[in-house]
Amino acid sequence: MVIAYQAGNVDKAESYLKKAASVNAAPEVNMNLGLISLIKGDKAAAEAYFGKAAGTKELGESMGNLYIAQGQYERAV
User: Fold this and answer.
1) What integer pLDDT is reported at residue 7 of this predicted model?
2) 67: helix, coil or strand?
3) Chain-wide mean pLDDT for the chain?
4) What separation, in Å, do the N-terminal and C-terminal C-alpha atoms of the chain show?
5) pTM, full prediction
6) Cα gap 46→32, rounded to integer Å
7) CATH superfamily of 2-76
8) What is the predicted pLDDT for the residue at 4?
9) Measured between alpha carbons, how far is 67 from 19 in angstroms, rounded to an integer?
């Protein structure tokens, strides 16, 4: 997944993550799916995945970025 993402193949990385989620929907997998959804502009999917990413260290920053993308600047702080 990381190699596909670093190579710029977001769709392939997303495919790998969805396969991983079907086996074990760990919070980290959902965090990465949320980040990819945000990159692709799918804010609703990003929010849904972030909602399943409790306990990940990136959650606060990622939610802030989502709120900025949604224009909810007060919530982003």
Assistant:
1) 54
2) helix
3) 90
4) 31
5) 0.84
6) 9
7) Tetratricopeptide repeat domain (1.25.40.10)
8) 47
9) 27
Ramachandran assignment for 61, one of left (phi > 0), alpha (psi -120 to 50 degrees), beta (any other): alpha
- Angstrom distance (rounded) from CA 12 to CA 3: 10
Whole-angstrom distance, CA of residue 12 vs CA of residue 9: 5
Question: Please, what's the b/e burial string for 30-39 (b: 16 or more CB within 10 A of its CB; e: otherwise)?
Answer: bbbbbbbbbe
What whole-number distance in Å separates Cα of residue 44 and Cα of residue 25? 18
Alpha-carbon separation of residue 43 from 7, 62, 75 (angstroms): 23, 11, 15
Tokens of 32: 């990465």
**Residue 1 to residue 17: CA distance in whole angstroms:** 7
